[in-house]
Amino acid sequence: MHFTTEFRQILLYTSVFVLKRCLSNEKYNNFLTLHVAITILCSPFLITFHLEYAKKLIQHFLTTFKSYYIYSGILIGLYSKLQEE
User: For 65, which of 22, 38, 46, 54 is 20 to 30 Å away at the CA?
Assistant: First the structure.
């Protein structure tokens, strides 16, 4: 449970500020796509009205993620796994 709580804290809150200084604008915008999608999916209120939008954001994230990171050996496996689901 500790890891998931930490990961949620990073994904939903901390990373928005930290990654702004670390990533190019294109990669940061790609991350924000994931951030918004996960924010919607974590909220019982938002998911009621915006589930389809969250799905589109995740599709967009995966497509752009591929173009930015596919040549990184570590991330090829992650991308493949996400595409399957």
Answer: 46
Length of the chain: 85
Q: How far apart are CA 54 and CA 35, in angstroms?
A: 10
**Averages of pLDDT over each 10 residues, the chain, 85 residues:** 72 87 90 94 95 96 80 57 57
CA–CA dist 61, 31 (Å, integer): 8
The radius of gyration computed from the CA coordinates of the chain, to the nearest angstrom, equals: 13
Q: Which residue has the tokens 């689901």?
A: 85
Residue 19 CA to residue 36 CA, distance in Å, equals: 15
- Tell me the residue range of the domain where 16 lies: 2-82
